[in-house]
Design a protein that fits this description.
It is built from four helices and five strands; from the N terminus they run E-H-E-H-E-H-E-E-H. The chain is of the alpha+beta class. The chain starts with 9 loop residues before the first strand and ends in a 7-residue tail after the last helix.
Length: 118
C-alpha cells in the first residue's frame, strides 16, 4: 500500500476505486489494508491502492450507506475497522459494474477500431 516507484504499476483511475472496494467486500468483511492487498493481489500487482486514496474512499462509501464498519481485531492482533457490504452497496456495485463494462467497451472500440479502409 506504500507508494512504489515501479512504472509497471498503475494508480487507480478516478471513480474505479469505489467499485473495486465494493467488489472486494462482496467476498466478505475486511479491514482497510486487507482490501488494498486484495485489490493489488487480484490485479496481479498492477493496481496500486494508496492509503491517501483508500481511507477517504472508505469514509465516502460508508457515508453513502454502501458499506458499514465496526471495530474488530485483525489477524495480526491489531485493532482495525472491518467493513462489510450493505444491501444498498450490492445494488450500487451492480450499477458500477454495468457502467464500467460500457465505458471499457467504448474505450476498446476507440483504441482498436475496425479497419474500414481497404
Amino acid at each position: 500500500m506504500l507508494t512504489r516507484k515501479d512504472p509497471s504499476r498503475a494508480a487507480l483511475l478516478q471513480g474505479t476505486l469505489d467499485m473495486l472496494i465494493l467488489r472486494t467486500l462482496k467476498l466478505g468483511p475486511n479491514h482497510g489494508q486487507g482490501i488494498a492487498l486484495a485489490i493489488e493481489n487480484q490485479s496481479e500487482q498492477v493496481l496500486l491502492v494508496e492509503h491517501g486514496a483508500l481511507y477517504p474512499a472508505l469514509d465516502r462509501l460508508e457515508a453513502k450507506g454502501w458499506i458499514a464498519a465496526q471495530w474488530g481485531v485483525s489477524a495480526n492482533h491489531r485493532r482495525a475497522r472491518f467493513y462489510t457490504l450493505t444491501p444498498k452497496g450490492r445494488k450500487q456495485l451492480l450499477q458500477e459494474m454495468d457502467r464500467w463494462q460500457r465505458v471499457s467497451q467504448a474505450i476498446g472500440r476507440v483504441l482498436a477500431p475496425q479497419e474500414a479502409e481497404g
